[in-house]
Write a structure and sequence with these properties.
Length: 441
């Protein structure tokens, strides 16, 4: 089992059977004492998009600038002209797997199995390439499910058994075996599984979702949900951004179902943030850091890309301040790490160059880690000048991130404008936003 670099944190307490880190400075208590009820809004059900726009780049695009407090309305096809020349967009190239499996109990009762992540330290891609056996953390839907129960399923010439090794409420560790034995686990779920549409899309996935609930640049399988801001991009849009001198860099954040989980606590400080895995090549990190070295704008495509970049930044800060362990080659960023300080923030260039030097000293061509980073109002961004994203669920941690990026008052104005305009569609298959922290051109 590989060790991880883990940024040290001040104080650990136990909350709801999980270990969380509570910040100690006065400014941090301001963040943790925010009320979750202040980060919600009324979303009429009919405004939730249950299917994507007919063409990806014909989604609408709301552009908002937090410095000028301006709002304008566009088509997503206008995006290349709205981005500054010589800027860089950072995309999450994770690929959604057909993670939803239908199975039966020994009594014949129906069970739904949703793959979350592998139950080991290897990448999802490595686990999907396994033969014979594969263990995954899963979410189960069904009644009277117990540890040691063996579930069975079959579809499209394949069959599988799923042994419940451990069970915690709706989550479980499941060991899969399957026939035919000469196919990989990835091939099994490709034949037997379905796309895991978000819970607020009240329909079964169909053949069109296999294409549209996937970005055109997806290449690294392992996510249980799509990085939905990227769903609007087309090869033509990517070519237009490149023609304007806008660079594109790639990273991986394996999106988990925690992204859909509503805030269930009264105070922001009592949230237990979900963890997601990050991967980026050293070469791509060097390209991104060169952009910061030259003081050029960086725009993250999606909250997942933003969360990954900010986590890399805080890992660099941890190295600079000697707050990481000295063993291992993986990093881990905790949810409250950024709120431990009040001043003396290193630049993105300084922090990321530190990460690069660490990777080189460890002979790494790829960086891997995990993040539980919670971005909420009071957070100070270290990397992103802009964010391309969708409209997010009321009372979600993604809406907290938007409120932190735009400001607690301006996010309401932006969402209010979109709700007032009857044509905007919300959530995963809905329309897009471009949020800028740089001045209007």
């Amino acid at each position: 089992m590989s060790q991880k670099y883990r940024i040290s944190a001040p104080q650990h307490i136990t909350f709801n059977m999980h270990t969380v880190i509570k910040p100690q400075t006065a400014s941090c208590y301001t963040v943790t004492s925010l009320y979750a009820k202040d980060f919600t809004y009324n979303l009429p059900p009919e405004r939730i998009a249950v299917r994507p726009a007919e063409q990806r780049d014909q989604s609408r695009l709301l552009a908002a600038c937090s410095t000028s407090r301006s709002i304008s309305h566009h088509s997503f096809s206008d995006l290349p002209a709205l981005l500054p020349a010589q800027s860089m967009i950072i995309t999450n190239v994770t690929k959604v797997i057909t993670a939803r499996l239908e199975a039966r109990k020994p009594t014949g009762g129906a069970v739904e199995i949703l793959l979350l992540e592998p139950d080991n330290k290897h990448s999802a891609e490595d686990n999907l390439a396994q033969y014979a056996l594969s263990r995954w953390k899963c979410m189960l839907g069904g009644r009277n499910l117990t540890a040691d129960m063996i579930l069975a399923g079959d579809a499209n010439g394949c069959s599988f058994t799923a042994k419940i090794c451990e069970k915690f409420s709706q989550e479980a560790i499941i060991e899969f075996s399957w026939q035919p034995s000469d196919i990989t686990f990835g091939e099994l779920i490709e034949r037997a599984g379905n796309m895991p549409l978000p819970p607020y899309i009240k329909r079964r996935a169909d053949a069109s979702d296999a294409v549209r609930y996937q970005t055109v640049y997806a290449r690294s399988p392992g996510s249980a949900a799509a990085p939905t801001a990227g769903l609007h991009f087309t090869p033509e849009i990517l070519a237009q951004t490149e023609a304007r001198g806008i660079a594109r860099a790639e990273l991986i954040l394996a999106v988990g179902l925690g992204t859909f989980k509503p805030i269930e606590t009264e105070l922001i400080g009592d949230i237990v943030m979900h963890s997601e895995k990050i991967g980026i090549s050293l070469a791509e990190l060097q390209r991104i850091t060169a952009h910061f070295n030259n003081n050029l704008p960086v725009i993250c495509v999606g909250t997942t890309s933003l969360r990954a970049m900010e986590s890399l930044y805080w890992f660099g800060v941890g190295i600079l301040e000697n707050r990481v362990d000295t063993e291992g080659t993986e990093f881990c960023v905790e949810q409250w790490t950024p709120y431990e300080r009040r001043d003396n923030y290193p630049s993105a260039s300084e922090a990321l160059n530190t990460v690069i030097n660490w990777a080189i000293s460890n002979n790494l061509s790829e960086l891997r880690g995990s993040t539980s980073l919670l971005i909420a109002p009071g957070y100070r961004f270290g990397t992103a000048d802009g964010l391309i994203t969708n409209f997010h669920q009321p009372g979600s941690t993604l809406l907290l991130l938007v409120a932190a990026f735009l400001g607690c008052n301006f996010w309401r104005e932006v969402y209010g404008e979109a709700l007032k305009d009857k044509d905007y569609r919300f959530l995963s298959y809905g329309d897009a936003c471009l949020f800028r922290r740089f001045a209007d051109k």
